[in-house]
Amino acid sequence: MRKLVVFETVSLDGYFAGPNGDLSWAHGNDDDEWNEFVANNASGDDGPLLFGRVTYEMMVSYWPTPKAAQDMPKVAEKMNSRPKAVFSKTLTASPWNNTKITHDAVSAVRQMKTEPGENMVVLGSGKIVSQLAGAGLIDELQIVVVPVILGDGKKLFDDVNQKDLKLINTRTFKNGNLFMRYEPKT
Hints:
By secondary structure, the chain is α/β, with parallel strands linked by helices. It contains 6 helices and 10 strands; from the N terminus they run ββαβαααββαβαββββ.
């Protein structure tokens, strides 16, 4: 059975997006070690990428472009070639190759977990993550804490009851980012 992995970037005070959805804080503090980690992480499994509509619209506006291929060729190739699922009640079609649109994230992920194949990865998509966490469908949570305090914004786990997690490993980077991997406690 394939696993569902969630990869999120949060501020030190727990926001995954700043006021008005601002994400500029999440892309600063680059260094060679961090850039290599991002490229290797993106070139991992070939399983489906899962998005909510807002994250999808941000991703599709960048990754299929010549600028993305120039700036981050390894990541762009993986983002464009992997199968993608978008959970949206309003989208009906996608210009991004290998993209399927579905309306019910929980039902779709339950079904996808029973199918053979590589692990699925949710990138961003806070509302979808909350829905999937509430349904107990997340097998691994990968969190990057960026050393910034936003003071306001969107919290990652709105409307989710307590979930106890077990720390698998951590990694610190020269830019101050902290990567942590968790699994649900059984």
